[in-house]
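User: Could you go from structure to sequence for me? I need the amino acid at each position, not a summary. Structure tokens:
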């Protein structure tokens, strides 16, 4: 009977040793995966910061373009008004010359 208990104790000891080795290997695997995930998160965070700067740049350019278009629109309105004034003046001159 003693031999049987020694064998059972030996087998249980080996099982515990194997499970300890497996758990250590699994912990190393989990640590490496966590490290990879952390690196990926940091990379994506950096990409996001770059993206945010690009979006701000595009928004600024869009605002500048809208301001420039508004100025052009005002210039066009001014030119139209001046053309109308000139047309009226030319019409007056022609009417005065025709009357003479």
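Assistant: Here is the amino acid at each position, in order:
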């Amino acid at each position: 009977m003693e031999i049987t208990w020694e064998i059972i104790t030996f087998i249980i000891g080996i099982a515990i040793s194997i499970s300890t080795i497996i758990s250590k290997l699994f912990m190393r695997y989990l640590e490496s995966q966590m490290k990879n995930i952390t690196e990926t998160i940091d990379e994506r965070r950096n990409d996001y910061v770059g993206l945010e700067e690009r979006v701000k740049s595009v928004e600024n350019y869009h605002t500048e373009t809208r301001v420039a278009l508004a100025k052009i629109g005002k210039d066009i309105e001014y030119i139209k008004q001046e053309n109308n004034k000139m047309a009226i003046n030319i019409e007056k001159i022609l009417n005065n010359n025709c009357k003479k």
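One structural detail worth keeping in mind: Residues 2-99 form the longest helix (98 residues).
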